[in-house]
Design brief:
Distance between the termini: 40 Å
Low-confidence stretches: 249-253
Order of helices and strands: HHHHHHHHH
Number of helices: 9
Structural class: mainly alpha
Strand content: under 5%
Length: 253
């Protein structure tokens, strides 16, 4: 793997781990389910699962590579499922269609993870693994794309609602800004997963091709920065949002 993709992957892993652990610790104090789901999602998928799945094929000893890959796939799928239910908990609590959508998406992710893992176990040849995993991987990428579209639309919907309430002094500027950032987070994730979908369509290996690895990791780093601003914003950023709201800048975004 080239140095730039490797650096992006390492950065993505470290930042995701820090944000995820902080969110989990915060959930233990606040007993907040959304923080717990978001924290588990970030620790399981980008901090553990994704780097393990990327690095396992580079391990020559199959006795080590196989358990690393299987464990990574379990973490990756589990983190994505937590993300689905985070969207439900925050934006559509109690809505049966949303609960069933998250459950269906989770089922697809589990099926895809099993299929991808089976492909890895069936061959040590990267090209053969990519061919065997093509269908389940395509299903996983498609489900992720749909989930990011959903969460981005929900974030922007809530942002519009909160902006109207701000005009009546019924909403807080910082909370309103968080929904805007969440919408941007969904769009950012949709962008990098779309790049993965394109490379998958042309027959590239998403785990070894440096371009999708770099784009995924770089997009993930940007996304985790947005998560910091959403869940644990620095005081300077909070002051900027509040000043912008008073000057009317936030209402025009």
């Amino acid at each position: 793997m080239a140095s730039i993709p490797l650096l992006c992957l390492v950065g993505y892993t470290i930042v995701s781990a820090i944000v995820g652990v902080k969110l989990i610790l915060r959930s233990l104090d606040s007993r907040g389910v959304p923080e717990l789901l978001a924290g588990l999602s970030y620790v399981a998928a980008p901090a553990l699962g994704y780097p393990m799945c990327i690095s396992a094929p580079m391990i020559s000893d199959r006795a080590i590579a196989v358990p690393v890959y299987v464990t990574g796939e379990v973490f990756l799928v589990s983190g994505c499922c937590c993300f689905f239910f985070f969207t439900v908990k925050v934006f559509r609590p109690g809505a049966q269609w949303a609960i069933w959508s998250a459950a269906f998406g989770s089922a697809v992710m589990v099926w895809s993870g099993v299929g991808i893992t089976h492909a890895f176990l069936s061959s040590s040849n990267p090209q053969q693994v990519a061919e065997l995993a093509k269908t389940p991987l395509a299903a996983m990428v498609l489900m992720l794309m749909l989930s990011y579209v959903w969460t981005a639309l929900e974030g922007m919907r809530y942002y519009r609602m909160m902006r109207k309430r701000m005009a009546l002094d019924l909403a807080d500027a910082v909370v309103t800004n968080r929904f805007l950032l969440w919408g941007f987070s969904g769009l950012t994730s949709l962008a990098w997963i779309s790049v993965s979908a394109f490379f998958l369509a042309i027959g590239a290996n998403l785990g070894t091709d440096p371009i999708p690895v770099t784009v995924t990791s770089a997009g993930g780093i940007l996304n985790t920065v947005l998560m910091v601003l959403i869940f644990m914003p620095p005081a300077a950023y909070v002051r900027w949002v509040e000043r912008s709201a008073r000057s009317g800048a936030l209402a025009t975004v």
